[in-house]
Amino acid sequence: MSIDIKTAAVEEKRITFDHIARKLGEGKKPNRYQEVVFGQQPEEVFHYRPTWDPERELYDVRRTAIQMQDFEDLLDPRQYYYATYVIQRSRQQESQEKNYSVVEKRGLLDNISDELKENIKKVVVPFRHAEWGANMNNFHISSYGFQTPIASAATMQGMDRLGNAQYLTRIGLILSENDPAILDEAKELWLHDPMWQGLRKVIEDSFVIEDWFELHLLQNYLLDGVFHPLLFQHLENHIVTRGGAAFAMLTELFIDWYAESRRWTDATIKVAIDESDQNSKLMQSWTEKWKPEVVAAAQRIADAVFADQSEEVMRSILDELDDRSRKLGLLN
Amino acid sequence: MPENVFIALQNTPEAQPIIEAIVADNDNAVVNESPGMVKIDCPKRLVLRRETVEEKLGQEFNLQDIHLTLISLSGNIDEDEDEFVLHWDF
Amino acid sequence: MAKNQRRLNLSQKYQLMTRGLDWETTYQPMDKVFPYDKYEGIKITDWDKWQDPFRLTMDAYWKYQAEKERKLYAILDSVVQNNSQQNISDARYLNAVKIWMQGVTPLEYAAFRGFNMLGRGFRGAGARVACQFQAIDEMRHYQTQVHAFAHYNKFFNGFNQHARIRDRAWYLSIPKSYFEDAMTAGPFEFITAISFSFEYVLTNLLFMPFVSGAAHNGDMATTTFGFSAQSDESRHMTLGLEIVKFMLEQHEDNVPIVQEWLDKWFWRGYRLLGLIGTMMDYMLPKKVMSWRQAWEIYWEENGVALFNDLARYGIRMPKHHETATREKYRITHEFWSTIYQFSHATALYTWLPDEEEMDWLCAEYGELFEKLYKPRYEYWRELDARGERFFQKRLPVVCNVCQIPIFHTYPDDPCKNICLVSEYKGTKHQMCSEGCKDIFDREPEKYCQAYIPPQQIYQGNCGGATLEDYRKWLHIRDEDAGEYYGSEDNQLWEKWQAEAARV
Ligand SMILES: [Fe+2]
Ligand SMILES: [Fe+2]
Ligand SMILES: [Zn+2]
Questions:
Q1: C268-to-A14, C397, C495 alpha-carbon distances in Å
Q2: Domains of chain C with CATH codes
Q3: Which end of chain A is more exposed for a tag (fewer CB within 10 A), N or C?
Q4: Å from CA of C233 to ligand 2 middle
């Protein structure tokens, strides 16, 4: 049985806000992502110059050398706005939580070899500091980035990195059965072990980069593009194939996260490169400037972990990165 | 001299056991209702106890869950697993 | 095989999850990595003393916020499906919502960007993380508000051009200049201004009675995002109180600096909230609480208790608080009278209170209202009846600090208009009050930069020198502005009421 309920149609006077209509063209309905990323950043009538940057306006297009007709083109292909973002992350974290508690309760990491435990202690756990650095860098991008699409996506990316750092902390604590000494030892390595100093230096150098797009390229493209495959693909594989299958349950989320976040990174870089030759040259020059340092930093870690297979691992990572760069137009 | 701390919660079924627990644990609490919300004032110190909420609720309760219904508050906060306390120290 | 592990409680878990994540940089000097957190003169000797009372980890944050968002969007969707805009008390009410979208939502956006800067800028990791949570919360607030208002925009005027008038309209310079003042200051002043003075001390006056008012007036969308945002706000307020106490505890030299900021931002916030008080007193067809009463509860009771608590650090009550309290009987009436006369230069409608509302105002405000403001409204009603609805021909003179039209009166004489002048580098600057004049005189270099809309208009920088030109420049049509009765919103509402009556 069906009941036919007739509701009087309520006539709509307009479809959307004026600035959205100007953007999408008359008669087009925006989705919720478009509704919140277009037209929100103030454009004019700035009352006071920032005391922390008196040469520029509060929102100023000159905080990067990249030039765009419209910085609102730097869209996020995932179309994340706050609600879709937190709902997606809470779903992922719920299933991830199950993995963590299974490994924890069943003691699945207990029986792996000492050598693999050392890998986790000396490579995986110290990397929490690198994720923390990525958190800072993305908050630089979200602070000084021009227009809402980049600012909002970088904010979420920044929060993700805090989440990543906390997940890495948990891996350490599972291994140490909540003994915090494992974190302190990892920090010692991060601060003093030669193996980590290449990466720590690049990251500290990145902290003083002012150009937010350069920082985006360095952090979210180059550093992530080398280190995430190194740790969560090659090192993970190394551990899993040597009897540490449970480790994969702990790092699954990093693989998924990286696959997802690089869609955003690639899309934003591609749009800027396609915009002009000038942008393209600038990005290539940034890549040339930073890539050798990033690769050398990774090499040190690869050498320590993979010994004679280190060349092969690095080659595979760089081949993939180069492929990706060619597709984006970063590499000819 | 004004000395109240307060907590304000959404007037929803989920907040009901929390409100009841506060009233039970704070003799001087005064409950003010307005549309959609409940504001509870108390001189100097107000405590919300997990155990009391659990009694009213008949289930386990995580104190962090008050963030789902909390609207506002005033007072220095001390929060741990078992208690959420608002206080002025003068 | 189940294991017996050390169980962690909330605070231990939080401690460990963030334990030592940050480090002293050595390849780059710390002062270069954090270039902005010293120039204001605030001395921090030990950032590790910073305690986050809520101890949120990312997993808990995602979980709670997702739950809030699921609930919120379920209601926003149902508002659309059921055309709940027809269930509000009266279409006049929507003008309060328009002020929100035009003036308050941009503040949420500004808070989002401002807290991003602090989330990168503070040297202490704990404070930085707290600011990051607030940054993304504020992003949530502006977004949920845009989504909620998108539906009202389909039917009513005054929402569609918000992105343009947010920057350009004279009356929206009040909130805009307020936040830009904070954002262009250093990080410690920003957080004192926003988290403490605005969120802790004053937003209770904004959110609690106003959102409760939305509930009372049948506006489900605003009620829901309002209370849901407010649940984040209690975290923000606590951050504000914690950071102020932290600065005061870290070094005695910080005390006079913080005191000056508290003085400045109390007054600036109070002035801004006059606009909100006016919404409460005049724009809610069903009243919840008058501005006077809200002021008594949230300032005279709760705000003063807070300052009593801070006294042990050597902090006194903010300057000019007596004036603010004395003005509680008049500020909203002076404000409404002003908007009433100038609403043809806004994207709002205004009207005169009806008999019942006049009685309520008399009851809430007593003798002063009856003597001063009621006769004024009655006079305008007569003009209106003769077909001469009263509008001013020129834009008002505005205060060079708070940007509010200078309609204010002397604290001890509500019949005498006040206008104070400071001269700086050969130019005269007008202020609405001792409070604003103090602020100007302390930082003249800053406030002489302010963009003063009426001056700009008469100089022809806003599309032309007449009000007509100006309105065109703002993309405000005749139909979007002025008197409510007879307006498009009013006609639509009457039509819906008639249809509902027929069913
Ligand atoms: Fe907010
Ligand atoms: Fe807030
Ligand atoms: Zn003023």
A1: 37, 18, 42
A2: 53-502 (1.10.620.20)
A3: N
A4: 5
Q: State the ipTM, two decimals.
A: 0.96
Q: State the pTM of this model.
A: 0.96
* Separation CA C281–CA C362 (nearest Å): 12
CA gap B49, B70 in Å, rounded: 15
**Residue ranges per domain, chain A?**
79-328
Q: What is the dihedral of CA A101, A105, A107, A109, to 10 degrees?
A: 10
B1 contacts in chain C (CB < 8 Å): 304, 308
Measure A11 CA to nearest chain C CA, in Å.
Answer: 8
Our count of domains for chain B comes to 1
Q: B13 lies in which domain range?
A: 4-87
CB burial class (10 A; 0-12, 13-18, 19+) of residue C363? Answer: exposed
Rounded CA-CA distance A215/A206 in Å is 7
Which residue in C186, C304, C308 sits closest to C247, CA to CA?
C186
CA nearest to A272, candidates A260, A257, A261, A283: A283
| CATH code for the domain of B42 | 3.90.56.10
Q: In this structure, what token pair is assigned to residue A186?
A: 């990892």
Q: Which two tokens stand for residue C396?
A: 């008002």
Give me the count of residues in chain B: 90
Classify A79-328 by CATH class: mainly alpha
Q: What's the pLDDT tens digit per position in C245-285?
A: 999 999 999 999 999 999 999 999 999 999 889 999 999 99
Contact list, A134 vs chain C (CB under 8 Å): none
- What would the DSSP string read from start to end of C193-257? IIIIIIIIIIHHHHHHHHHHHHHHTT-HHHHHHHHHHHHHHHHHHHHHHHHHHHHHHH-TTHHHH
Q: Are strands C349-350 and C482-483 parallel, antiparallel or unpaired?
A: parallel
Of B1, B3, B70, the CB nearest to C234: B70
Q: Do C449 and A49 touch (CB under 8 A)?
A: yes
Question: Chain C closest CA to A209's CA: distance in Å?
Answer: 9
> How many whole angstroms separate alpha carbon B5 and alpha carbon A117?
51
- Pick from C203, C205, C206, C184: which is nearest to C195 by CA? C203
